[in-house]
Amino acid sequence: MRVAAVGIAALLLLAACAQDTSSRPSPPEELPTVRADGDRLLLDGRPWWPAGLNAYQLGTRWEVNRGCGGQVDLDEFFGSFPPRSIVRFDAFQSHAVHRLSDVLDFSALDAVFAAAERHRVYVIPVLAPHDSDCDAGGYKQADWYVSGWRDPLPGHVLAYDDWVATAVERWGSSPSVAMWELIGEPEAATCTDDECTLERRECAPGGAGLLRDWIGEAAAIVREHDPDRLVTVGTIGGDQCGSAGGDFATVAEADHLDVLQYHDYDDAQFLEQRLAQLSKPVLVAELGVEAGPCRGTTDRAAIVDRTLTRYRELGADGALLWSFVPDPRPDECTYDIGPGDPVRDVLRRHHRIG
After folding, report:
1. Which of 50, 55, 82, 53 is nearest to 69 (CA)?
2. Of 68, 143, 271, 352, whose CB neighbour count within 10 A is largest?
3. Pure H helices in 177-259
4. pTM above the 0.70 mark?
5. How far are the Cα atoms of 57, 77, 195, 332 from residue 70, in angstroms, in the given order?
6. DSSP classification of residue 179
7. Is residue 31 within 8 Å of residue 81, measured between CB atoms?
């Protein structure tokens, strides 16, 4: 009799649940694929103006890789954004190489994509840097864009082309991917000494065509493994080798390149010119405004508010601040943006769909 009573109770409970759906959680909000239409970004067929953050160190896991910057609580970080926000982060090969065995270990980057999906936040994975910050291999000179990208660099397991294919194949099914970034801040330059400082670099002849052709080939690899996602490249937008002046428009002609970038640390002096040159979306993927002893975070938030308004008026297609850190340095004047920074409220106000 006891078993029968339990069975009847269970049936009654199931019937009640079937009739009363008011307490059921709503299904997760879908993340539609980001599109480009002319010089606009679209989300679900509506104009999208993303305002988000850079967080380069999301893939740092000291027990797995050599890391870069502090470790971040991924659920806490992504959970602090409203759904359909956007974050740009480093998805470099070095973050997928185990620090002890020097073999591929994707677990640290897997965790980033999984957390973004759980909180329905978009990401822009940057697949490589031009220099060696947070990655192995050193500064990429002009000849790397000719053929060196098909050979593994020191400290890498895979050549760049194989890394792109591997990364996009692995994470291309993630609904959180807004667009793939081929490389951050490329230049067509040659070093004249071992230190390869900015003052010791020379622009390679035909640099614009070199970058354009390389972008087209690299972007074709992305298209092969993820044909529906946008492709971007981390152009600074200033007077860099291969993209200064009219060369910026030449680079923008690359096959399969959907979105150009502008990086603003100098009052956007070239932005209006770049926007006038292109009929593709231009995302201000890095905006750096310092705070600390030199400026309070509330004052910085006000500057960012005015700057994002100006970007929109000029015709830019969104902006991402540089950069979130879990442990900001209040005694130094830096670009650090901590978890409770008031500029986060500014981003929420400027992030728009429709």
Report:
1. 55
2. 271
3. 207-225, 247-252
4. yes
5. 7, 13, 27, 17
6. E
7. no
- State the burial class of residue 327 (Cβ atoms within 10 Å of its Cβ: 0-12, 13-18, 19+): exposed
172 burial (CB, 10 Å; 0-12 / 13-18 / 19+) is middle
As a CATH number, domain 51-353 is 3.20.20.80
**Chain centroid to CA 326:** 17
Cα distance between the two ends of the chain: 61
The predicted pLDDT at position 15 comes to 40
Length of the chain (residues): 354
Angle at which helix 160-171 crosses helix 207-225, to 10 degrees, equals: 40
pLDDT tens digits, 172-221: 999 999 999 999 999 999 999 887 887 889 999 999 999 999 999 999 99
Q: Render pLDDT for 125-160 as a digit per residue (tens, 0 to 9).
A: 999 999 989 999 999 999 999 999 999 999 999 999
Give the whole-angstrom CA distance, residue 90 versus residue 58: 7
Question: Cβ neighbours of residue 199 under 8 Å, at least 6 residues apart?
Answer: none
Map tokens 């002849």 to a residue: 205
Does residue 154 contact residue 139 with C-beta atoms inside 8 Å? no
Only one residue has tokens 């480009």, namely: 36
Q: Cα separation of 101 and 112, whole Å? A: 22
Domain positions in the chain are 51-353
User: How would you class 190 by CB atoms within 10 Å of its CB: exposed for 0-12, middle for 13-18, buried for 19 or more?
Assistant: middle
Instruction: Name, in order, each residue with C-beta under 8 angstroms of 59's C-beta and a sequence gap of 6 or more.
Output: 65, 67, 68, 89, 90, 91, 92, 95, 108, 109, 112
